[in-house]
Amino acid sequence: MLTTNRAVPMTVGASFFFDASGGGVKWGTASAVMVLGALPPALLGLVMYRQISGSMIAGAVKG
C-alpha cells in the first residue's frame, strides 16, 4: 500500500478491494488487509496492558 506515489493508509487502501462497479468484492484479500491493519494496535495493547492499567490506577488514587 505504501510503495507507490499514491500512498494511502492501510485502512483507506482496504476500501480499494470493494469494487462498486459490479466487479465483485475480493473478500479474501480485503480480509487479509483488514486483519494486518488491526494486528499492530492489538499486539501493542496486549504488550502494554500492565503499563496502561497501572497508569490509570495510579492517576485515580489520591494521596
UniProtKB/TrEMBL annotation:
The chain crosses the membrane at residues 27-49. It is a multi-pass membrane protein. Keywords: Membrane, Transmembrane, Transmembrane helix. It is found in: Membrane. It comes from the Bacteria. This is Maltose/maltodextrin ABC transporter, permease protein MalG.
